[in-house]
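Entry 14. Ran structure prediction on the chain below.
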Amino acid sequence: MRRFVDIGKFDDRLYLMGNAYMPIYYLKGDTVSALTEAGVTFMGPIVVQQIKELSLKEPSYIFLTHSHYDHLGAVPYYKKSFPEVKVAGSPLIERVMSSERAVELIRKLNYNDLKAFDLEDSFKKEDVEFEPFNLDIEVKEGDQFELGGITVQIFETPGHTKDAISYYVPEIKGICFGEAGGVPELSGKIQPEFTSSVENYIASLKKLENLELEIICLAHGGIIYGEDARGYIKRSLESAIQFKERIINYYKELGDIEAVVEKILSEDYKGGQISQPEVPYRINLEAMVKKVTQESKTKEELNVKG
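Output, structure tokens:
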């Protein structure tokens, strides 16, 4: 699977910022520009500096794909750095920002990443503490943003989270969907991410399936382009359906959510197929197994053995 992972210009309209593992995408319009994704808190100073070094104009918009900590952590820093910027996302993000518990978790997870990357000393002089923020623009299905020469179209794509939004740019046949389209491993296998709802996740992929795509801006791992991008949504949909069926079959056999989690963990993670750290992978896997069993309605329908 071909990927662009270099910091800087991909083409005249698209730049990769941050780093390949936590990319932030800069869309360059003729009149205004935008960031898609925000990244963890400490990505704020990094991306602001990259924009300056590349002599790019300040973004007018920040398009948020969803409310997970590593996708909106740097919003407060950008708002301080770019006073005129407008933050756009699902109105459900406002609910997250109004929850003290959710905000504290976002703050904690961002700080954990800062420590994990051993960057505490590097950012002592920068205010990268997460604080709740308000959306400037609440987006919905069918909305459009004109950047000048390029248009950003809004698709509601729940499934990974309830507030997941995908941003499609028809002029470059490119899309930024957060984790609504899954995350490909280095092997090329696409890891499903239906942590909110498997049925909504599959429906969202079907919604995106007929879009013309030459560019996919991944939530983690840079840009997929060309032939690999053209077939990506179909492969992701197939992967999600297969993973759902695998969970159902294991649950029929074992009859216990934790046992299913451990079986998949031993086969996939310990088998070297997953590059994500084990703790977040386990958390996501548990959520996906629970969603599949819940949405299959009853154990009778699952035909559990014994």
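The first strand starts at residue 3 and ends at 4. Will compare against last week's run tomorrow.
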